[in-house]
Write a structure and sequence with these properties.
Strand order of the largest sheet: 1-2
Order of helices and strands: HHHEEHHHHHHHHH
Structural class: mainly alpha
InterPro entries: Probable_transposase_24
Radius of gyration: 38 Å
Shape: elongated
Largest sheet: 2 strands, antiparallel
Distance between the termini: 103 Å
Number of helices: 12
Protein name: Putative transposase-like protein
């Protein structure tokens, strides 16, 4: 969402420098929050991390850029849908095929890397002796890692970034493929990123509430001023009011007539 907001802001301002968009926030982000976001995006640390991520996403493996078929639906949701279709929890290999083959796992692989990984894994397990009837549904994590290469930053190729190595591999295997300190560091970075985003969202909500409250208070002050003016206009006696002056004259005249009649008697 923020990526799209950045790109749309740069398009509006006809620039590639995010700093030039500081005065052009989207409608759904307050100006103050947008300025803070631009300040973060303009830092060398953030730009270097963003560029590194872009390069990593576009890095070729076995002559092919990494791809999958999940689209806008998350890996976790795809796993739930596959479990509903199979009436049981899918194996890791079934899940890999579903997310890396066209036509819901029944077509061709979407790229060379997924096809190579699948073929290497199948070749590796076919050379092993089948110990039991359940061997077919088991997932050999060692064979998979040999087929796909070492895990990167605590992730195993072919599975969601939210599915850590420990959820796919046995404990002893996961420790061989990733250091505990590095994994903890990665988790801390992700938590910090999410906390920062949550804080920005919360601050945007609070600012919006304050703006709404200020607007309501301004309207109340305006109404109070109008009521005050109306009250003062009624309380003030206009000069030259004939009805009031006539009433006073008639009253005085009546008193004088009473005194005259009294003196006559």
């Amino acid at each position: 969402m923020l990526f799209r907001a950045r790109e749309e802001a740069k398009a509006r301002c006809k620039t590639e420098n995010i700093v030039d968009t500081v005065d052009s926030p989207p409608e759904w982000i307050s100006a103050d929050i947008w300025r803070q976001l631009v300040a973060i995006w303009a830092k060398d640390k953030w730009r270097n991390k963003s560029e590194k991520g872009k390069v990593n996403r576009g890095t070729e493996f076995e002559g092919s850029i990494v791809r999958h078929t999940v689209g806008s639906i998350s890996f976790l949701r795809h796993e739930e849908i596959l479990a509903e279709d199979l009436k049981k929890k899918p194996t890791h290999l079934k899940f890999f095929d579903r997310t890396h083959k066209r036509f819901k796992g029944k077509g061709d692989f979407v790229d060379k890397r997924s096809r190579v990984a699948h073929d290497r894994y199948q070749k590796a397990i076919s050379q092993q002796d089948s110990d039991s009837s359940t061997q077919q549904d088991s997932f050999d994590t060692d064979a998979w890692c040999e087929a796909t290469g070492e895990s990167s930053r605590g992730r195993v190729y072919g599975f969601s970034i939210y599915k850590p190595v420990s959820s796919i591999m046995p404990q002893h295997a996961s420790q061989r493929h990733i250091g505990a300190s590095r994994y903890c560091s990665m988790i801390e970075e992700e938590v910090q990123r999410r906390v920062e985003i949550a804080c920005l969202d919360l601050k945007a909500t609070v600012n919006a509430q304050h703006e709404q409250q200020d607007k309501i208070m301004a309207e109340l002050r305006e109404m109070r001023e109008l009521l005050r003016q109306a009250y003062e206009s009624r309380a003030t006696v206009p000069e030259g009011d004939n009805s009031l002056s006539g009433w006073g004259s008639n009253t005085n005249g009546g008193d004088q007539n009473k005194r005259d009649r009294g003196s006559t008697h």
